[in-house]
Amino acid sequence: MTDLPLEQVRTLLAVVDEGTFDAAATALHVTPSAVSQRVKALEQRTGRVLLQRTKPVRPTESGAVLVRFARQLARLERDAWGELGLSGTGEPTRVSVAVNADSLATWFLPALTRVEGLCFELHREDEDHTAALLREGLVMAAVTTLPDPVPGCTVRPLGRMRYLPVAAPQFVSAHLDGRPLPEALSRAPVVVFDRKDDFQDGFARRLGGRSAGPFRHHVPTSEGFLDTVAAGLGWGMVPEVQAGPLMERGQLVLLTPGAYMDVALHWQQWRLDSPALAALADAVAGTAARTLRR
Questions:
Q1: Residue 67 carries which DSSP code?
Q2: From CA 9, how far away is CA 63, in angstroms rounded?
Q3: How far apart are CA 129 and CA 100, in angstroms?
Q4: Closest residue by Cα to residue 263 from 107, 193, 159
Q5: Domain tally for the chain?
Q6: What's the pLDDT tens digit per position in 167-219?
Q7: 190: enclosing H helix or E strand
Q8: CATH of the domain at 53
Q9: What angle do CA 119, 114, 73 make, to 5 degrees?
Q10: Spatial distance between the Cα atoms of 81 and 235, rounded to a whole number of angstroms
């Protein structure tokens, strides 16, 4: 087994982070030819194709292993500088985290305020897909629904985020009253986050065996999703913490008494002895304990 050339590994990481060979060359203060030669040499050394030459460039499955290694190495290096009381490169300590939109809009940001001295790079992704960013080495930690640890990561439960099936009163009168709810939901307009969002379908099927209707509004932000439902354009599954105040004011109503769906959230992070990651994990877990259901 041969050692991995760290200069080549760091160059691979720069290409993935910057998205192109030219941009990586600018970031590294070398020529694009030098970047290409380093990546090619690393591919020859490992016997693997490490990058998909797309725009932006993305790592292959093998490349993701080395990207993750490069990020972990950089994280440990910064921690070492910090423990020595030295500034290292003088750059802020950066931590990349994948988090779903609803957590980001409700409880996650207050957790970040409890950690000092860190610069955060947040990647917004559906909670069912955030773990993929960990596997690819694109983030150091993630809020995810996956209870089993990604290879090389640790996992801890955070709690359950409760969602309520709600709609505006005028929407209920126009689309749902006067017919069985499962039948009505299979025809009524519905709000979804994006094309990967099957949460509303899951509730409708659990209620009556049918998916939600084909008339769909795609609204890819948590705040916009809530506003769209409250405006009466469709029904949707809204986090309890967001729906509650509007229900108290009569702007939203529950579609059926006692209905809800819970999503169990977990925190996964690299298995590193890193003070920065440990502090962040404690802050996230503490905030989740006060906000999410147990």
A1: H
A2: 10
A3: 9
A4: 159
A5: 2
A6: 999 999 999 998 999 999 999 999 999 988 999 999 999 998 899 999 999 99
A7: strand 190-192
A8: 1.10.10.10
A9: 40
A10: 52
